[in-house]
Design goal:
This protein is an alpha+beta fold. 33% of the residues lie in helices and 15% in strands. α3 packs across α13. The longest helix is centred in the middle third of the chain and has 27 residues.
Length: 419
């Protein structure tokens, strides 16, 4: 499935709606961002290739192809990594400075933060919804999803505003007659519920993978916060009590999103001791995403987790939630990660709107590769790299640019020809 300006959930919802199938009939190994032209494998349960291929005539921003049949479907977490091609437009500075920055990232890696898109791009962070779900505050979670957002101007904004003023889910839903978004599904659940205040039932109208996004976002928030404090206090070096993976093949944090009915992959870790701390570097160190079945560092960092969870009224026992979908066993994530097969080049260009990179769909359509213009007015940096699953290219780019890579900040640069 190829898509542009659509996130994975939205694209799958559209395909399922056109085929009159349930969203759960389609599975994939991981979600891809809205901000990009992405290609990924998708499993479709009991639907023919011909039927899927016919959708291409009516899909917008989505193209599907390369059909074949398999015995088993894809599951979230079955992903070795992602290949990225990124263009950074209109940069200034000497090419030699770029080479130094890129070489440093290749050799030393970058802090493996969860990117800002993990927490949403609006004024209501997704981890706030996740916190409400973990605390079983169903009404609060629903209202956070439906709360009006500053600067939002579309039919979803109209629906949010109407619901917020009237609490009339049916009237608000009428503003979204053809939308398959999370807000529409939640409003439908509220409008169709046997009881007006059945917020848990309404939330369950949202597809499971989308609901899990919220609680995983909360874990990511905890991880990012602990990581910043760990690096500020102890720097880029292992300390006694840090955790490293041993034995089995490393498991990505994206395993958190696997089928809750499947047994979790058990990852073995050990604490670094005084006698072997010199055998490791910072790229070996992992920090846990909080859960009820996870080992925490054998040093003061463990207390940081407890304190941070306690601020939100949570502890590891409460993460073993009575609602199975929100029960979080936890996982481990590398503190620093290195890109694989990293390459870069500088491209000169004149037209701020011209494409400087071919998508997979462009290549299938035999479009010609954009060429650098020797006397171009602007310069762009082209970066190609492979990252482990659940590592964010935006965080790698931030390491190179030393600047904010959020959507809000980047949008302010467009007038200058930057992306």
């Amino acid at each position: 499935m190829y898509k542009e300006n659509r996130d994975t959930t939205d694209a799958i919802n559209t395909i399922a709606h056109l085929l009159k199938m349930k969203n759960g009939s389609f599975t994939y190994a991981g979600t891809k961002d809205k901000r990009g032209k992405t290609t990924q494998a998708v499993s479709a349960f009991r639907v023919t290739a011909d039927r899927l291929h016919c959708l291409n005539s009516c899909l917008r921003g989505i193209t599907i192809g390369n059909f074949h049949y398999e015995k088993e479907p894809l599951k979230l977490g079955q992903l070795a990594g992602n290949r990225f091609s990124v263009i950074l437009r209109n940069f200034s500075g000497e090419d030699s400075v770029v080479d130094v920055a890129m070489t440093s990232m290749r050799d030393n890696g970058f802090i493996n933060y969860y990117g800002m898109q993990r927490f949403g791009t609006t004024t209501i962070p997704t981890h706030h919804v996740g916190r409400a779900l973990l605390l079983s505050r169903w009404q609060e979670a629903a209202e956070l999803i439906l709360q009006p957002r500053q600067g939002e101007r579309n039919e979803v904004a109209e629906a949010r505003s109407l619901f917020w003023e009237t609490r009339d889910a049916r009237a608000a839903l009428s503003k979204l007659p053809k939308r398959r978004c999370i807000e529409a599904m939640l409003l439908h659940g509220l409008a169709a519920g046997r009881h007006r205040n059945d917020y848990l039932g309404a939330i369950n109208s949202i597809p499971r993978n989308s609901r899990l996004m919220y609680v995983h976002s909360y874990q990511s928030y905890i991880w990012n916060t602990i990581t910043s404090r760990r690096l500020k206090q102890f720097g880029l070096k292992p300390i006694v009590g840090d955790l490293v993976m041993v034995g089995e093949k490393e498991a990505s944090a994206v395993e958190l999103e696997e089928d809750a009915n499947a047994p979790p992959t058990k990852v073995r870790v050990k604490a670094v001791s005084e006698t072997d701390v010199g055998n490791y570097d910072i790229t070996d160190i992992v920090l846990p995403l909080p859960g009820h079945d996870i080992e925490f560092p054998h040093n003061e960092v463990s207390e940081w987790y407890k304190d941070l969870l306690a601020v939100d009224g949570l502890d590891t026992e409460k993460l073993k939630h009575k609602v199975k979908d929100y029960s979080l066993p936890g996982a481990y994530r590398k503190l620093v990660t290195k890109p694989v097969d990293l390459s870069w080049s500088v491209i000169s260009y004149d037209d701020k709107t011209e494409s400087l990179l071919l998508s997979d769909l462009d290549r299938l359509n035999h479009q010609e590769e954009p060429k650098s213009k020797p006397d171009g007015q602007y310069k762009a940096l082209k970066i190609e790299m492979t990252l482990p699953s659940s590592s964010y290219a935006t965080m790698a780019v931030r390491e190179v640019l030393k600047m904010d890579t959020s959507a809000a900040h980047q949008s302010t640069l467009n007038d200058d020809g930057a992306t």
